[in-house]
Design goal:
It is a single chain. The chain is α/β, with parallel strands linked by helices. It has 17 helices and 15 strands. Helix 6 packs across helix 14. The longest helix is centred in the middle third of the chain and has 24 residues.
Length: about 375
Amino acid sequence: MVGRVKLGRRTKSLAGKLRPGDIAIVDHTDMDELAARALVRQGTACVVNVSPALSGRYPAKGPGVLLSAKVMVVDSAGRDLFRKVKDGDMLEVSGGTVFCGGEVLACGRLLTEGQHSLELSQAERGLGAALDSFLANTMAYSRREWRDLLGPLKPPLLRTRLRGRPAVVVARGPGYAEDLRALREFIGLRRPALIAVDGGADALLSHSWQADLVVGDMDSVSDRALRSARERVVHAYPNGRAPGAARLTGLGLGFSAFAVRGTSEDAALLLAHCLGADPIITVGTHNFLNDFLDKGRKGMASTLLVRLRLGEAVIDARGLSRLQVHDGALGPVAASALLPAGALLASSPALRYLVQLLWLRLKLALAMS
């Protein structure tokens, strides 16, 4: 493999600089699915990871995504590689060896599908230890943080109306693009408030939607998406730190601040809830063990407490796009199966909206069959 190199220690930031056929040099232990898909979308020919692509701590999905897309993967090439090359250098990768002008720069390990499958199985067997540590951390921090996250909060005053209105909170997590497409008709009909968590604003723009609010640290969202949003809310912390404020000030963009513990996703959900949005539909948010391990988080205390606080107001659209109808006769069967549940649905607004989402997806599937 011969190509021009692009370097980046943050894979998602690097992806935007890549061109088809480039060789990407990254430093990403346990590469996550989202980062890998970003590299694939850019047409990356080869990924040289200076760290282990799969450490064995848990079954990270990124390496498998690259291999399935026929991207050449070399890992454990050593961090010295970052000081030996610069953007634009022509490199040759043969086996696990990286050359420049005939000189050997690094010797890593060429990852094969068979080898990856074996290591993935071993990681899955060792997942119990990671789960034990994850749960212990979650419980310890839940005991410390519950008063802050379950007590009174002071949301900023915004121009965007949320009270009594559905809201869709979009993060760029696994499956976000497919689930946004599945929600297209719902968004068109109900006109919910569109709340982006950082780069979720770019996800909305890619579907020709403008974010009503961007909430977060403003570290993984484009200038274009920030400028297009109707309002911006910086996620601040109880100690007064607000990492995103400097960037917005530099861009000359106005913003509000919302001080709350937890992740930016947590802040966006709490903001929507405090300002009266109902229901709150999440797309691409992080809710599962692998999600948090991919993000490098050792627990999910804040997310657990936020979900406890919001209860049935939250509907997770994750995986909605996977609903498929392969037989035209299934439509009437599915519709009749919903009838006995009518009384229950009438008593629960959250369940009614969930059925609306499922019914919209069913109609789309029938229309395409």
